[in-house]
Amino acid sequence: MIAPRFVALGLARGLARGLARAAGCALVCLAAPLAAADRKAYEPAEARLERVSEVEPELIALVERLRAAVAQTDAKAVDAELSPAYRSWDCFLDPTKACSPRGAGAKQKAYLARKPAQRLREDLCCRDIAPGKITPKLREETALGLIGAALEEETLGASPFEPAQICAPAPPHFDRAAVARIAAAADIEKEDLRLAAAELIARDRPAKDAEVIGRVAAGRIVPLVTEADQALPDGWSALALPDGRVAYTDSLGLNELTYAGVCFGRESGAWRLVGVIDRKP
Q1: 101 falls in which pLDDT band (50, 70, 90)?
Q2: What are the DSSP calls for 44-66, one per residue?
Q3: Are 155 and 18 spatial neighbours (Cβ–Cβ below 8 Å)?
């Protein structure tokens, strides 16, 4: 197993934490009615985490070298692990949109003409900063922060984009059309879809002493809802259930459905860092 580490740099932008780990009910076992809501029933959906059960020692060693490089703020050590074909990917906050590689189509020749280290730094920095304030150091720190945040997790899984690649943390695989239907039925923004990384306890009110009306299985896709006439207590979330009603949870484990992470591929017998996947508005 890959030992967990804590790596975080202040410039890392809202990155993926682990997309973790059935129930006799479809999504939630309901026992009591909730307050009426103007939402429609929907067909539950889940995301699969196709984890790698046995990780090759060479890949483990690469991950450990990258973790050490980030911890030491050693950008050149990261550069040494980049594939010549390194490419960044954008995954959109709207999870119904397919992720897209940088430098695709007509732009590919010009994109690949840049050195891998240049692609890494320029692709990932710095969306919300004025060009005049972007420095080489800032580009390095941002790239290191993104890589370090992705490698906090122990999980490795098959890439949803390139079947031969392995990514950290393990990416979710899901039906984009199905999650679009859930968002429409629940009457929420697509950006408010989440993944239950652990089992969630569903209650009929946002209170510890409220009745437990069901449980949401890990791996299920969950629509978060906002009720205009109700301010939720800190730490509580409102969920749209498959029958259109609303439940409440203070359970931890509601993760972004949009993926961010790093991917590895084998080239000429050696594992290399082949891509960083960033979230994009």
Answers
A1: very high
A2: --B-EE-B-SS--HHHHHHHHHH
A3: yes
The answer to whether 171 touches 259, Cβ cutoff 8 Å, is: yes
State the Cα–Cα distance between residues 260 and 265, nearest whole angstrom. 17
Averaged pLDDT of the chain: 85
Q: Amino acid identity of 99? A: C
The residue type of 251 is S
Give 208's DSSP letter. Answer: T
Q: Tokens at residue 21, please?
A: 């780990």
Q: CA-CA distance, 225 to 240, in Å (whole number)? A: 6
User: Can you give the pTM of this predicted structure?
Assistant: 0.80
Asked if residue 167 has a cis previous peptide bond (ω within 30° of 0), the answer is no
Pairwise CA distance, residues 179 & 198, whole Å: 19
Residue 93 near residue 281, CB atoms below 8 Å:
yes
> For residue 64, how many other CB atoms are within 10 A of its CB?
14
Q: In what order do the strands lie in the sheet with 100-101?
A: 100-101, 89-92, 270-280, 261-267, 166-168, 157-158
Q: Which residue has the higher pLDDT, 127 or 136?
A: 136
d(Cα 234, Cα 237) in Å, to the nearest integer? 9
Main-chain dihedrals φ then ψ at residue 219, nearest 5 degrees: 95, -10
Instruction: Give the tens place of pLDDT for each residue, 213-261.
Output: 888 999 999 999 986 666 899 999 999 999 888 999 998 889 999 999 9
Q: What is the mean pLDDT of residues 136-160?
A: 93
The confidence score (pLDDT) of residue 5 equals 36
Residues forming a β-bridge with 167: 157, 263
